[in-house]
Each structure stands twice: as structure tokens, then as C-alpha cells.
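Exercise 7b. C-alpha cells:
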């Protein structure tokens, strides 16, 4: 029988949304709030959490919602303005809503689509 146990992220996650398990690590799309920017957070359940993406060319993300990672290590994550428009618990948006592609091996990050797609959600393979 499999066991489950509680994990207490250090530092803690701030309004964590979608999560994806990849190579033994959990990648979270963290919405953030007024004091903690929206970001992709890498969590090793045995050690610590680490912010691995929190801006696009110096502009902070709005309100990340979901993330999915391909077998090749390409992460797709969605960034809408949920926290601002729906809950008013994040700072005003700096970027258009969109879907981002992040090559985890090279660190390259690009905006794959957005603007006209409304509130992006749930990338999947």
C-alpha cells in the first residue's frame, strides 16, 4: 500500500494552483499575491522549494494558473490575470494573458500564445 505524508514547503507556496511531477520534483504554478510575485516554483518534497521563473524579460508574471511538462523537459505554463481581475489579491498585470514555453535544460523562455485567448488554463499533452 502506498503511503502519503504531509509536506511543508520551505519557503511556503503562495496561492499554489496547478502542479506537475517531473523527474521526482514538483513544479507549481504559484499565483502569488501583493507581496509575493507569481512564479514557477520547483519543490523537492525532501528538501526546499525554489523559484525558477518569476518574470519575462523583467516584467513580472500576472497570476500563473497551471503547468505541464513534456517528457523532454519543456514546460508550458499559463499566466492570466485571475488574481487581479477575479480576486484583486495580486498587483495589476504587466503582461498580456498567455501561455509560456520554458525549456528547462537551456533556460530559454518564450511567450507561445496569448492576448486574444482570454484566461488561459490547463496546458496538457
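Sequence design result:
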Amino acid at each position: 500500500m502506498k503511503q502519503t505524508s504531509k509536506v511543508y514547503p520551505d519557503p511556503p507556496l503562495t496561492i499554489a494552483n496547478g502542479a506537475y511531477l517531473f523527474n521526482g520534483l514538483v513544479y507549481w504554478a504559484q499565483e502569488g499575491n501583493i507581496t509575493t510575485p507569481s512564479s514557477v516554483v520547483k519543490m523537492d518534497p525532501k528538501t526546499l522549494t525554489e523559484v525558477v521563473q518569476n518574470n519575462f524579460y523583467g516584467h513580472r508574471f500576472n497570476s500563473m494558473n497551471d503547468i505541464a511538462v513534456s517528457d523532454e523537459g519543456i514546460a508550458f505554463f499559463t499566466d492570466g490575470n485571475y488574481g487581479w481581475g477575479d480576486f484583486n489579491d495580486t498587483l495589476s498585470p504587466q503582461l498580456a494573458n498567455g501561455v509560456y514555453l520554458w525549456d528547462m535544460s537551456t533556460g530559454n523562455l518564450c511567450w507561445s500564445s496569448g492576448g486574444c485567448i482570454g484566461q488561459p488554463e490547463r496546458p496538457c499533452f
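Instructor comment: The two ends are 29 Å apart (CA to CA). Residues 82-86 form the longest helix (5 residues).
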